[in-house]
Amino acid sequence: MAKCYIHVSIANVLQHQHQSMTTAYDMLKSLKEMFGEQNGAAKQTAMKALLTTKIIEGTSVREHVLKMMSLLNELEILGAVIDKESQVEMVLQTLPNSFQQFRLNYNRNKMDLSLAKLLNELQAVESIIKQ
Length: 131
Prior knowledge:
The chain is mostly helical. Helices cover 73% and strands 0% of the residues. The protein has helices at residues 2-9, 12-18, 24-52, 61-77, 84-93, 100-108, 115-130.
């Protein structure tokens, strides 16, 4: 049954190549050999994007944090393991100087935030800063 599911979910060219394989395990092993290296390159690309992303002063913090969350999600899908606390720290490090007071409060109060809560807090701070 697993072999049938794999077979219908891959491209026609790959179906033809894997038609003679007797087990789902053999098919998965072959596919991993074919595409495993691409996973590593994709992970490197996503990690580089994550580490080099900085928000430009004056742009929307919401859009920026959503972009960071997307990159973190992509890395997770590719097999990277980054704990939630480190994810929040990575986002905080990309913020401009106008969020310095928020970072100080976060560290001083040892706040425990998810990325979603962080987004809400940063949007509130952004609205105060704009006033």
